[in-house]
């Protein structure tokens, strides 16, 4: 009977695959050069992950959960009342964490995954849908806590998720992070007054 994969080694490989993808992207990702870079073999990667697509999706999911978990932690117990002003502070802190320099290195990879998921929905489309669904679900629950009806909560969540993703992608082309920061604050200036009318 074959020995089951070592979970610690699998996690270590996954972390290193993620770092490799951040440095090299997805366009020319091939198992043999990747395996050589990691000091292993393509057969070993297939043993641990089953397929290249599954390995990539797991490495991306591992990375994605870090900012999502940070946002969930911000939603934990708080002494502040959950009102529109609190929601604005939560969104400002979420933006600060999403656009932090330590996460920016991974953003080109996400842009590439988004593009591939549009051109080849069967490859990374499910991953991108899961990412967007999780972020939207998180914000829908926040808006419901403010007393919004379900349909409106979903619309407000869609607006924030889509705007934040767009504002994360735009400065990759020209480094305009200050402009994106200003745009986020301007967006929240316009949206917050409407959150009082629940």
Automatic annotation (TrEMBL):
SUPFAM superfamilies registered for this protein in UniProt: Homeodomain-like
Superkingdom field: Bacteria
Key words of the record: DNA-binding
The keyword Cell membrane is assigned to this record: no
DNA-binding region listed in the record: 30-49
GO molecular function, one term: DNA binding
Keyword DNA-binding: yes
A Pfam family of this chain: TetR_N
Every HTH tetR-type domain range: 7-67
Protein name, entry field: TetR family transcriptional regulator
Organism lineage: Bacteria, Bacillati, Actinomycetota, Actinomycetes, Kitasatosporales
